[in-house]
Structures are given as structure tokens and as C-alpha cells.
Specification:
- The protein is built from twelve helices and 17 strands.
- It is of the alpha+beta class.
- The protein folds into two domains: about 5-220, CV3147-like domain (CV3147-like fold); about 245-375, Beta Barrel (CV3147-like).
- Strand 4 (about 115), helix 5 (about 125-135) and strand 5 form a beta-alpha-beta unit.
- Helix 1 (about 10-20) crosses helix 9 (about 225-240), helix 2 (about 30-40) packs parallel to helix 5 (about 125-135) and helix 9 (about 225-240) runs antiparallel to helix 10.
- It is globular.
- The chain starts with a strand and ends with a helix.
């Protein structure tokens, strides 16, 4: 029995809007997330998530996730796919890639999983995990391993709790399978996983974090999927009621609106299968005189206000459309957009020493001490 079942398009859109909001600019395509879940509903599958307590301590879970740059392959790369490697467009979609990766991991471990866990909150990654669970006839649990979206696999609660990651099984968009048996550390798993994603032209899903129910529930950030559904619904309802979506969601979730204005600059580099960029946002109205620079590696991690360090990971920086409240993934943000920027506190587990080791300014090679966002706002 699922705790929450998504029955129609509006409920799906509310959920995917919410996970995209918590995705802090990453986590995959909003539209693909909607499409994948609607395909499962059309098949007559039950789509949603279950209470974490549904998973017994002696049962098993794993975590399937999409791997690749937000940008995806450009036209030149697509031509090379055909000319050099004789590859047409991928025919194995995100759900099926996850399903095959999970089945490969089960075969490797000699055990079946009873539940899937989203690695992060994000439009495609969380939705694809729920879709894969529906396709497999098992449950996704109400939670995830980050409470936001992240670019690297060690930026997760199983790393903080020193649980197991490997083996990891990968499946690309043509059904090709590879396995990372082991690695000297988590960063090397990330590196090898990225190389498999590069080989698959960013059309990759992987499955790892095989764990018993007790360890799963210890690492899980409980209730996150329900919280995302409620956040996405609140954004829609605010706009329908003629309210300001940024002010509404910040008040609901205990965040801060740090700027409303226009995107006036964007500088992009797509390398190593990550999407790197900076966005420059010039404040308007009550935020005139506020100039933000937001640095991102897939997701937003560093923010400067008028040249001074302001908000940083692990705290969250979300950018939404000022009028519609639609959360943006970073690859779709363009100069001229009118946006609102919201800051929110990180989950407590990421403010521990090991959490900050994984996800803080120094994790991204910035020589900056982490200062909690609520201290910055004083």
C-alpha cells in the first residue's frame, strides 16, 4: 500500500515541480520527469511512494540514478554518434535504463530488492526512480539520500554514515551494461561512473547503494517526497490565487527570498560530463542594488551578493520564474529571464563535519568557510 499515489497529470506536475524546486538547479529535466510518470499511469501501474517503515530490516533496497550533464550531447556529438559509432538515437529510456541497472545489481548480489530510493530530489532523477519502481512492481520509499540535488555520488547520506556504495551497475541508452566492482574511494566511483556516462553520451543510469532495510532507513531523509509534492502544490496554488510564488514558498518552507530581478549574464562550460556555469542576476524593485552571482556545477553551490560570499552549499539556492513560480534547471536559464532567488537551510546531517567534507565550498575547491544561511541573513 502506497502512502501517496499520483493519480492524474496535475498531481504528477505538482510533484515534479516540487522535486525540481528542491533540485537547486539540477536533478534532470522537469518535462522528462512528468513524461516518465504519466507513462506509468497510462500503463495502469500504481505510481507514488510508501512509508519507509514498509521496508523490513532484513529486506533490501538499492538506489538507481541518472548520470550525465544537464546539457546532454550537442549536434556535433550526435553526428559523431552515428558517423563513428553507428548509433542512432537511444531506444532505452530512463525508466528502462534504471530497471536494467537494478536487475543487474540484483543478479550481482544474488538478492532481490523490495524498494528503491531516489539518490536526490530533481525533476528527472526522483521521477525516474519512482517510475522504475512502478515498472518493477515494488515501492519507492518516501525519502532520498540528499534532500536536494548534487553533482557527485559522495555528496549523499550513505557516505556520511560510511555505508556501502559498490558494486554499481550501469546501463546506457542502447542497453549496454557495465559494472564497477569496487574502488579505492567514493570519488573514484564517481570518476568511473562519469566515464561510463561519457561513453554512453550522457544517456546513462546506474544502480548502487545495495543495503538492508535497517541501513536504508538510517540513511534515508524521511518524508522528502511528500514534502516535494506539497511544495509543488503550494507554488501552483500561490500563482492561481494571485500571490507571489517566491514569497509564498519561502514563508512555507522557512527560507529567504534573496533577490528578484533579471538574469543579465550567463557563462557556461560543459566538461567532464558536468554542466558548469555562472549566472548573474540584477535585482529590481525592492531588490534594486542587489547583484548576485551564482556558481554551479550541475546545481547551484556558491552565491555572491555585491561581490561578497553570501549563500553556499550545503544550503540550498533555488531559482524560480518570478511570475509563474516554475523552478528552473540551470541549463534552461537564459539572459533576460525574470527570476526570484530563494535560499534555504541544508538538512542537518549535511552540517556535520563529514557532511561538510562532502558538500561545502571547500568540496568545490573554494577557500571559503561555510557559514549557515541563517547566520548570513542576520
Amino acid at each position: 500500500m502506497l502512502k501517496v499515489t499520483l493519480k492524474n497529470r496535475q498531481e504528477v506536475e505538482d510533484f515534479v515541480r516540487g522535486v525540481t524546486f528542491y533540485g537547486t538547479g539540477g536533478g534532470g529535466s522537469y518535462q522528462r520527469g512528468i513524461d516518465l510518470l504519466m507513462e506509468q499511469i497510462a500503463k495502469g501501474h500504481e505510481v507514488g511512494w510508501a512509508q519507509p517503515e514498509t521496508l523490513g530490516d532484513a529486506e533490501y533496497s538499492c538506489c538507481p540514478f541518472l548520470m550525465g550533464s544537464l546539457a546532454g550531447p550537442d549536434e556535433a556529438t550526435r553526428r559523431d554518434m552515428k558517423a563513428t559509432y553507428d548509433l542512432d538515437a537511444p531506444h532505452v529510456d530512463e525508466t528502462e535504463r534504471m530497471v536494467r541497472a537494478v536487475r543487474g545489481l540484483e543478479a550481482k548480489m544474488g538478492k532481490k530488492v523490495s524498494a528503491l530510493i531516489p539518490i536526490e530530489l530533481g525533476g528527472a532523477n526522483a521521477a525516474a526512480c519512482i517510475s522504475a519502481a512502478a515498472e518493477l512492481g515494488i515501492v519507492a520509499l518516501d525519502g532520498d539520500y540528499t534532500g536536494r540535488a548534487i553533482p557527485e555520488i559522495q555528496q549523499t547520506t550513505p557516505f556520511i554514515y560510511e555505508q556501502n556504495l559498490t558494486p554499481v551497475v550501469a546501463c546506457d541508452g542502447w542497453g549496454e551494461i557495465a559494472t564497477i566492482e569496487s574502488a579505492v574511494n567514493w570519488r573514484m566511483v564517481e570518476r568511473m561512473g562519469k566515464q561510463l556516462s561519457v561513453a554512453g553520451f550522457s544517456y546513462s543510469a546506474q544502480a548502487g547503494f545495495f543495503a538492508n532495510g535497517a541501513d536504508t532507513k538510517k540513511a534515508l531523509i524521511h518524508g522528502d517526497l511528500t514534502a516535494c509534492y506539497e511544495a509543488g502544490k503550494a507554488l501552483r496554488e500561490a500563482v492561481e490565487a494571485g500571490k507571489d510564488p517566491a514569497d509564498t514558498i519561502a514563508a512555507k518552507l522557512g527560507g529567504w527570498v534573496i533577490c528578484k530581478g533579471t538574469v543579465t549574464g550567463k557563462h557556461v562550460e560543459d566538461k567532464d560530463d558536468y554542466y558548469w556555469a555562472t549566472h548573474e542576476i540584477t535585482g529590481a524593485g525592492g531588490y534594486a542594488g542587489t547583484n548576485l552571482k551564482v556558481w554551479l556545477k550541475n546545481e547551484n553551490h556558491m552565491c555572491w551578493k555585491n561581490g561578497e560570499v553570501f549563500v553556499t552549499s550545503p544550503d540550498m539556492i533555488q531559482i524560480i520564474d518570478t511570475k509563474t513560480g516554475q523552478p528552473y534547471t540551470n541549463n534552461v536559464i537564459t539572459v533576460g529571464m525574470e527570476v526570484s532567488v530563494i535560499a534555504m537551510k541544508a538538512r542537518d546531517i549535511f552540517r556535520t563535519p563529514r557532511g561538510l567534507l562532502a558538500l561545502s565550498p571547500r568540496a568545490f575547491n573554494f577557500d571559503v568557510d561555510y557559514v549557515p544561511v541563517e547566520e548570513r541573513m542576520k
